[in-house]
Design goal:
Elements (H helix, E strand, L loop, with lengths): L1 E2 L5 E2 L4 H16 L4 H11 L4 H13 L6 H17 L5 H14 L3 H11 L7 H14 L2 H13 L8 H14 L3 H14 L4 H14 L2 H10 L1 H4 L5 H15 L3 H12 L7 H16 L8 H10 L7 H13 L3 H14 L5 H17 L8 H10 L7 H17 L3 H11 L7 H7 L12
Antiparallel strand pairs: 1-2
Helix pairs in contact: 1-2, 2-3, 3-4, 3-5, 4-5, 5-6, 6-7, 7-8, 8-9, 9-10, 9-11, 10-11, 11-12, 11-14, 12-14, 14-15, 14-16, 15-16, 16-18, 17-18, 18-19, 18-20, 19-20, 21-23, 22-23, 22-24
């Protein structure tokens, strides 16, 4: 048995595999594009590296693509085989495999619980901590994220390899609860300890955005560009935050430049890249920016994904892209798929039932909530879609716009009051409040 540099006890006796796996974990923490190759090197050096197979399985699931369910199960089976070859492996490895088993069945919440409970006495072991945070993030479970990060910070050795990364996760969890000053202090400390902590950099940028501190936010992101520009496609998301700050300042030319060069430099179909593109294009359009044909590539990708409801967060962004170009057939098919998903029993089926279906119908212009209780319930249920408060603000804005076009100014004001609990008032919401009643209620109207 060996304990790696981040606290995980493994059964591998290969020094090469351990070194490669530690590189993979570091890559996971820093969002480096080298993570995948490091993981391949781990398994090449030790075909029975249990944690390596588990990480590969989770990596496939977190990409939230229907076609990756099979590779995820293959990785799970390889992890089980590796456990058997190692006479049951270590306790840490067994917990990881059980969590992957749960996640592979669509139960991310149970998988995160297994990780938190399985490492309750050692909450600073980084890999299970980070995977749990990622799963909870996709579920919008900010409360459990904060609970886990608080426990980890309470027992944290600031000299450990994972200290900065754990503090970065804690800063983000604090920010998602509106505890902005605490998040700012913790996030800056995280980056001081670990300058490559992209998540800590990200947490601090959230604070500036949500407080409306555009000058400080731009300075922070530009000053840390050397770190986040080395990330994988997470760099696109960091650029998205930078674009939002410039949008609030009214610098439309700069926003378009950032979109083309840094938010959407590649026409990928990763759901996170699509979320960046769709939500920023929509905001630009609502702000009066002429976006030209920039919707077309997103809409084409969305159409290809119209039957994929693996993650409702992703499906709703795909729907918004098709709405923007008026693809009624694609819209209808995806709304029907989300409605069918709501009949299931896994985590995302519940998300579809509680918020995915009503939100999809609003985005597609099929419904405008006519009852204040319905609107309040939709806003309250939005965190279940997953992502951050900043990402979900797109849906808050779209909902406000829909009811505004329906003529219900009181409902728009109510949404605005709820929104102010987390985000400072901004130009875009002010423009939505001034919308006059219109017959066109869809997102593209």
């Amino acid at each position: 048995m060996k304990r790696d540099a981040y606290g995980l006890v493994t059964s591998s006796d290969s020094c090469d595999a351990q070194r490669a796996f530690e590189n993979a974990v570091f890559g996971l923490a820093t969002h480096r594009p080298s993570t995948g190759s490091a993981l391949q090197a781990t398994i090449a050096a030790d075909g029975h590296h249990v944690a390596g197979h588990v990480l590969k399985g989770f990596a496939n699931l977190i990409l939230a693509r229907s076609e990756l369910a099979v590779p995820a199960v293959d990785a799970l089976n390889n992890a089980r085989t590796a456990l058997a070859a190692r006479d049951g492996g270590t306790g840490d490895e067994r917990v990881l495999v059980k969590a992957l088993e749960a996640a592979a069945t669509g139960s991310f919440a149970h998988a995160a619980d297994l990780l938190d409970d399985g490492f309750e006495d050692r909450p600073t072991v980084f890999l299970p901590f980070k995977i749990s945070q990622a799963l909870r993030f996709m579920l919008g479970d900010a409360a459990s994220m904060l609970s886990a990060s608080t426990k980890a910070v309470d027992g944290l050795d600031l000299a450990s390899n994972s200290a900065g990364f754990i503090l970065g996760c804690h800063a983000f969890s604090l920010e998602e609860h509106g505890r902005y000053q605490e998040a700012l202090v913790v996030g800056q400390h995280a980056v001081l300890l670990q300058p490559d902590d992209a998540w800590g950099l990200h947490a601090v940028s959230h604070v500036f955005e949500m407080r409306g501190d555009t000058v400080e936010g731009i300075e922070w992101l530009e000053g840390s560009r050397r770190a986040w520009s080395r990330c994988n496609n997470f760099s696109f998301h960091m650029a998205w935050h930078l674009a939002l700050l410039h949008l609030e300042r009214g610098d439309h030319e700069r926003v378009l430049q950032i979109y083309d060069d840094e938010v959407r430099p590649q026409q990928t179909d990763d759901f996170r890249d699509m979320a960046n593109a769709v939500s920023l294009l929509w905001r630009m359009q609502q702000s009066g920016i002429q976006v030209g044909d920039r919707w077309l590539d997103a809409a084409e990708i969305a159409y290809r994904r119209r039957t994929d409801t693996t993650l409702i967060f992703a499906a709703l962004h795909n729907l918004a892209a098709m709405v923007a170009v008026g693809d009624r057939n694609g819209m209808a098919e995806l709304v029907a798929q989300i409605e069918a998903k709501a009949l299931g029993v896994d985590d995302q089926a519940r998300v579809a039932a509680e918020i995915g279906v009503p939100m999809a119908r609003v985005l597609a212009g099929l419904d405008t909530p006519a009852d204040q209780r319905v609107i309040d319930r939709m806003v309250a249920n939005l965190p279940k879609i997953g992502g951050s408060n900043a990402q979900r603000d797109f849906f808050v804005l779209a909902l406000a716009r829909a009811v505004g076009h329906g003529g219900d100014k009181a409902a728009v004001s109510r949404i605005g009051e709820i929104r102010k609990r987390l985000k400072a008032d901004d130009r875009l919401f002010q423009s939505i409040q001034s919308i006059k009643r219109s017959a066109g209620r869809s997102l593209s109207a």
